[in-house]
Design goal:
Blueprint (H helix, E strand, L loop, with lengths): L1 H22 L3 E5 L2 E2 L9 E5 L2 E5 L11 E5 L4 E5 L13 E5 L2 E8 L4 E9 L4 E4 L15 E5 L2 E5 L12 E5 L4 E5 L7 E2 L2 E5 L2 E5 L2 E2 L3 E2 L3 E5 L4 E5 L2 E2 L8 E5 L2 E5 L10 E5 L4 E5 L9 E5 L7 E11 L2 E14 L12 E3 L6 E5 L8 E7 L4 E7 L4 E4 L6 E9 L2 E9 L2
């Protein structure tokens, strides 16, 4: 009898495990983070650097934002970053991307002024610096444009100028020489509120509006080697929208929401290789929200996406959602070091770290303060290491162990 009960319990556990991994894909979950929740906004950006998601800017109903935040994936916590020195003016409708563990911010609009500046944020020093380019010719100030990275070059396309006129020009910034070059404009006229994705050395553009209010229904592909644009009609359920949130997962892009005359919650899975779209589970009905993929810290089988904010008609939001895709992680994906141990916690002067299943001869230990500054960084060359934390002030920190590209983090408290 006891044997039968044991077998039944094992069967139930297996069934729960299988059910979770089948039905957790293509699902939305609203999460309720703690910490410094950003105000409701639209037109902001989010970018992943390391194990943090950095959020900048956006428009409120009666304000523009330049407070800077990061989101801790492991702990589901928002934190406001207090940087030192100069910082970009408040704005929305800008573009941002991560390059060499830095955040680059391009142009934008504060409701009165349209900008043509470029800013760089360095998480190591927790400082912003304005980048001065070396070109006499440069793109006009704009917003609702895109900035797409290929190698060490950034391609800036379209948007609206200071008079609200739509634009069709394409520029490339060489991030080494800091020189702008004008390229062939996109065929078919002006474009704004679109999505631009780099794949296999080309740029693929979809959605947004063209030549006034007309939704862009085709995919336009730019080849930097030939400076030539081509157009194609995508297959499947494309259903374009303006100002959708986009998250790129290698050759797959998820487009969330946007405006099609009204705000929609459409979730379109775009296979760039096939130039085809499939409809997936609908999410929040928003425009000018933002989304970004991140490592699967809460679900180990499918790639996940973080979604924040946006507008629906007269309402702005500051809610946080996680969308679990149906894209399985590659077998080559590094495993997270789930049995990473450190003690004591709370600590005073020293902690002992055991990397668990991680390869300790290829590990880095990093500790961050709640404003995003890296305060300790050391390699781990033995199975167990004692780390001096006596120089840290009382408070809460994030401790991370990095092994072969995988990152596992936890909260560390210093108390004396």
């Amino acid at each position: 009898m006891r044997k039968h009960i044991t077998l039944y319990c094992m069967f139930c556990l297996i069934a729960v495990f299988i059910t979770r991994n089948i039905y957790s894909q293509d699902t939305w979950e609203q999460v309720f983070p703690t910490g410094d929740i950003p105000e409701a906004r639209e037109g902001h950006t989010m970018n992943v650097i390391g194990d943090k998601v950095y959020l900048f800017g956006g428009w409120g109903d009666e304000s523009r934002f330049n407070p800077f935040f990061y989101f801790l994936l492991e702990l589901l916590e928002w934190h406001r970053i207090l940087t030192s020195g100069e910082s970009p003016q408040a704005r929305g409708g800008h573009a941002a991307l991560a390059l060499d563990f830095m955040l680059l911010l391009f142009f934008g609009f504060d409701g009165i002024n349209v900008f043509d500046d470029i800013w760089q944020y360095d998480p190591q020093t927790n400082t912003w610096s304005e980048i001065n380019v070396n070109s006499v010719m440069r793109p006009a100030a704009r917003y609702d444009h895109t900035a797409t990275l290929i190698g060490d070059k950034v391609y800036l396309l379209g948007g609206q100028d200071s008079k609200g006129a739509q634009m069709n020009d394409l520029w490339v910034l060489d991030t080494k020489s800091l020189e702008w070059t004008m390229l062939s404009p996109i065929i078919g006229g002006s474009i704004t509120g679109h999505t631009a994705i780099a794949k296999d050395g080309n740029i693929h553009v979809y959605g947004g509006v063209r030549n006034g209010p007309w939704l862009n229904t085709n995919v336009f592909t730019y080849d930097p080697k030939t400076d030539v644009w081509t157009s194609s009609v995508p297959g499947g359920s494309s259903m374009p929208s303006n100002n959708a949130a986009a998250a790129q997962l290698n050759g797959i892009v998820h487009l969330f929401g946007g405006c099609r005359g009204t705000h929609v919650g459409l979730n379109r899975k775009w296979d760039i290789g096939l130039q085809s779209f499939d409809l997936k589970s609908a999410g929040p009905e928003r425009t000018l929200a933002t989304a970004t993929p991140f490592p699967p810290v809460r679900n180990g089988q499918y790639q996940q996406v973080l979604f924040f904010g946006g507008r629906n008609t007269d309402t702005l939001y500051n809610d946080t959602w996680i969308y679990t895709t149906d894209i399985e992680l590659s077998a080559k994906q590094p495993e997270l070091t789930e049995n990473f141990l450190f003690f004591p916690n709370p600590a005073s002067d020293f902690i002992t770290i055991n990397p668990g299943s991680a390869r300790y001869n290829n590990c880095m230990i990093e500790i961050y303060s709640t404003d995003g500054r890296k305060v300790i960084s050391e390699s781990l060359s033995e199975k167990e290491k004692t780390l001096d934390v006596s120089g840290l002030k009382n408070g809460t920190y994030l401790i991370s162990i990095i092994s072969n590209g995988a990152v596992h983090s936890n909260k560390l408290v210093i108390s004396r």
